[in-house]
Amino acid sequence: MGALQLTLGAIGVAASAYAWGIFVAGVVRMVRIIRLGQPDATRNGPVWPRLRTLVVEFVAHTRMAKLRKVAPWHWMVMWGFLIGSAVLFEAYGEVFYPGFHWPVIGTWSAWALLIELLGIGTVVGGVALAVIRQLNHPRRADRVSRFAGSDFKAAYFVEAVVIVEGLGILGVKAFKQASGLEDPPLWSSFVTAPLSELLPASPDWVSVMAFVKLVTALIWLAVVAKNLTMGVAWHRFSAFFNIYFKREDDGGVALGALRPMMSGGKVLDLEEADPDTDVFGVGKVEDFTWKGWLDFSTCTECGRCQSQCPAWNTGKPLSPKLMITQLRDHAYAKAPYLLAGGRRDMAGDEVGLVEDKYEDYKKRLESIDVLAMAEAERPLVGEAGELGVIDPEVLWSCTTCGACVEQCPVDIEHVDHIVDMRRYQVLIESNFPSELGGMFKNLENKGNPWGQNAKDRLAWADDLDFEVPVFDGELGDAEYLFWVGCAGAFEDRAKKTTRAVAELLHTAGVRYTVLGPEESCTGDPARRAGNEFLFQMLAQQNVEVLNSVFEGREPGRRKVVVTCAHCFNTLANEYPQVGGQYEVVHHTQLLNRLVRERRLVPVAEIAEDVTYHDPCYIGRHNKIYEAPRELIGASGATLREMPRNSDKAMCCGAGGARMWMEERIGKRINLDRVDEALGTAPSKIATGCPFCRVMLTDGVTARQNEKVVGGGVEVVDVAQLLLTAVRRGQAQERADVPTDESSTGTPLPDGDKAATKD
Questions:
Q1: Residues 428, 348: Cα–Cα separation, whole Å
Q2: End-to-end Cα separation, the chain, in angstroms
Q3: According to the UniProt record, where is the region Disordered (predicted)?
Q4: Whole-angstrom Cα distance, residue 756 to residue 758?
Q5: Pair 286, 397 in one domain
Q6: What is the pTM for the complete model shown?
Q7: Which of 210, 300, 437, 661 is deepest in the core (most CB within 10 A)?
Q8: Quick one: pLDDT band at residue 750, thresholds 50, 70, 90?
């Protein structure tokens, strides 16, 4: 141990004491900040399924692998960080004594090989990630770049540290071999052994490289400890917890059912809720649960959510990534105020930091930075002039398609957070797009968003050549309840799907019944728009009806078939929250089974090219991808897949109650999707959701009016394709009438109509 070793060692120890000290303090502060969120007991267990999910996701990189060009490089860097930590701590000994190695394993050839692979993988992975970031730099691609809005300085800092650490690992090993301190077999040192032949035989260089490796890590610790919002660095720790505490303990993503409205860690009972003590949605950042705060802290700013977002890709202000980072920055900036006891009521009056509440009131007040006090004044949702954290246009641009949640590698729950903010805006602020007012009124008074009379719910069956069975108080031998849905009952294009399904079920001899006037909206548009009160009212009403229909039947025989993707999701995933347990199937699933059982036999092939649009609420939200595609194949059509399909499919633009709102910013989402569909040169565009059919039909009509495409392209439901094949090509119903000729949806106020013409 020479003077060099003593000097470097002393510097390393002193730097370590400082860096580790502030890092531990940073971790403690981060935990305290995350705990500012509301309680959420649903994340506590079960332990083993959650641990299994955690292990699978990080070992196999299952979520990261959704972007295959990045996954292998990130996998290398991840393991380089985890196992490389052991190599890092070895540097403390190597700085003082160049020949130091871990007892026992330090002499194993397998350990030497592992270090070799770690060093190479870390360098190669770090360089690859930096190159990928450069190739996707927003200066070249603007909104096409998933890194638009990301913190590039932080990312390059982390990647630089990764590369230097990898070089340090290889450098120490190579200089040890050059100095004769180690002599591993060539197979375990296939890079460092040849390299050692070119290096000087000096043990001092081992200490120098170990010092570089050590100090680089200490600089990283110090920098991230001072920057708690550097998600690209902190996700190395927080991602493990975020994955473990994800909403679904079975490993599924936070799609399908929305998270119930919570207050104080419990599901909020709206009939007994107290506005003075309960939280209605999220009106302030502290109203998010601690899991929400953990989400904000874990965001790596990779932009995968942003790259898949239909709103962002059509010029809307919503970027799921930027929304999360804005919430994160606001939360951490406001945290000193909250940690000191600050709190405001719904009227905006200070009720936390009041003089008669704390003996050390002045001390608490003085401890809060003036910037934190200013941050506490900002509304969570508000326009730029109000200094709002989240602009209303951002909040209401979301279609709740779930692409962001599906793609996020660290399981952030964007959709739940967006809907929670909408809930507060609707229920407390009464601040929502004007078009929704008419839709809410129609749902409340008429039980459907179109405002039609319940007695007309069976009009779709008027001219069928067979009798549609209607529930008359006895279910009898009916196997299925056919839930027609509001669109299927009232919207002209969706009626064709309803009629096709009814005819196919009749042909197959399936015993079913419909509710007719007793049916009401499931409440999906109300809930996605944030009107939880209206959703609860509709849901409880429907559950009461359904439970009476299925009275006496065991759970496994309470079968419902639906044609609407939104009805399917609500009945199957959300009605259990209000006491409704049913076996719900989508019509494409049931029809596909009937074809397999030869109860439906396509006898006239459709010799046409068809592209299929995956509805978000049967696709991403419920993983139904194969059944509709198999039906298209069974009909004899040739399937032409769009570039964005299955779990990466582009939304039609109707979800999240956007069906009832005008698009005034950027390109219309349905036009973007139609342009992609037309790029496959189809004769028909097939789908499995009435909302999608409306949006795509309007998009095709718009392009036909612009002479972009000929008049032969038609939008149909998959059931219609099958019916055509089963009918031996009998005469079909006339083509769809676009919305601008036959209106669909809630009528717009005159002011909004004028705005759409500008």
A1: 13
A2: 80
A3: 729-758
A4: 6
A5: yes
A6: 0.92
A7: 210
A8: very low
